[in-house]
């Protein structure tokens, strides 16, 4: 942005306003809005901060965006705002890449170890006051395929590698010598490579190419007894096909933080499966994550006001920020 006029910033925030906004409020006219108020907030606004990153309100309010030049979403995934009118516009889109990398990687490492050491079984036996000796698995020496080679996938690869797992990535382009994965296979060849791994971690962005990529064919291709972890997007998975693979015993377990429908409906069979770990879309939500999201936006806001290049600019054709390892 240039000039001396104070910018107008619309903030989609639901019932919870973002913290630490005082410096931005001193530099801009800030309009906080719930979903139904967003059209009014967008009229004459120069920028939009989608703090309520799960909201689907932006496409329906887009007709009122008569002056918008920049949209920032407080998440790594941009699918809630990736609609044709935005994609075809000159509005710059940025995301909050980098905030959740380490926390999600820790979650993935945690569930991998929890399955291998059967922590859930130990808890059930403890609740029964039952002393039952069992043998558990080693993690070191097992193999993992991380589907998605952006910063979150790379953080996952580093942590899994640190405990002795052999980690491979799956991304747009096959290559060797990657600094974090070593080897990256092409996602378009996913089913050919799935039989080679003990654990498959889904962290790919949601695009038309990745929607439903984990279906009956993909699960059937996985190694018998393999485990599946989804920390990407629920829509990457055809849930019925995953349930069938778990019920049939082809997969030995799944850790799921995201779902096709959220909240996960009470009638979902996933709740009652002893070989499934369910968490409420929280794998990246560490203490202080909301403040961290505002810090990323505030940095970009200062850049935008000063006419400097923005960080985390999304390629709207791809649907994510291109990685350059």
Automatic annotation (TrEMBL):
Belongs to the D-isomer specific 2-hydroxyacid dehydrogenase family. The lineage of its organism: Bacteria, Bacillati, Actinomycetota, Actinomycetes, Pseudonocardiales. GO terms for molecular function: NAD binding; oxidoreductase activity, acting on the CH-OH group of donors, NAD or NADP as acceptor. PROSITE patterns: D_2_HYDROXYACID_DH_3. The keyword Oxidoreductase applies. Keywords: NAD, Oxidoreductase. This is Phosphoglycerate dehydrogenase-like oxidoreductase. It comes from the Bacteria. InterPro entries: D-isomer_2_OHA_DH_cat_dom, D-isomer_DH_CS, D-isomer_DH_NAD-bd, NAD(P)-bd_dom_sf.
């Amino acid at each position: 942005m240039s000039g001396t006029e104070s910018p107008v910033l619309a903030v989609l925030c639901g019932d919870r306003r973002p913290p630490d906004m005082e410096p931005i409020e001193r530099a801009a006219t800030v309009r906080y809005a719930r979903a139904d108020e967003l059209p009014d907030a967008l009229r004459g606004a120069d920028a939009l901060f989608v703090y309520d990153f799960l909201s689907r309100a932006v496409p329906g309010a887009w007709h009122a965006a008569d002056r918008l030049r920049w949209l920032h979403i407080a998440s790594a995934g941009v699918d809630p705002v990736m609609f044709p009118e935005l994609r075809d516009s000159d509005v710059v889109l940025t995301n909050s890449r980098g905030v959740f990398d380490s926390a999600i990687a820790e979650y993935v490492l945690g569930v991998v170890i929890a399955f291998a050491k059967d922590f859930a079984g130990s808890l059930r036996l403890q609740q029964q006051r039952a002393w039952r000796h069992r043998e558990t698995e080693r993690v070191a020496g097992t193999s993992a395929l991380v589907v998605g080679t952006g910063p979150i996938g790379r953080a996952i690869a580093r942590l899994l590698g640190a405990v002795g797992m052999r980690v491979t990535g799956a991304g747009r382009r096959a290559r060797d010598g990657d600094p974090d994965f070593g080897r990256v296979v092409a996602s378009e060849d996913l089913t050919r490579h799935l039989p080679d791994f003990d654990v498959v971690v889904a962290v790919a962005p949601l695009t038309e190419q990745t929607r439903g990529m984990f279906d009956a064919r993909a699960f059937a291709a996985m190694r018998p007894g393999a485990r599946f972890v989804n920390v990407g997007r629920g829509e990457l998975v055809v849930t019925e096909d995953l349930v069938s693979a778990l019920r049939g015993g082809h997969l030995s377990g799944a850790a799921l933080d995201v779902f096709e429908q959220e909240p996960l409906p009470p009638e979902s069979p996933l709740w009652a499966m002893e070989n499934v770990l369910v968490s409420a879309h929280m794998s990246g939500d560490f203490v202080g994550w909301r403040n961290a999201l505002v810090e990323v936006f505030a940095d970009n806001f200062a850049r935008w006001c000063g006419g400097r290049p923005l960080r985390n600019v999304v390629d709207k054709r791809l649907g994510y920020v291109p990685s350059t390892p």
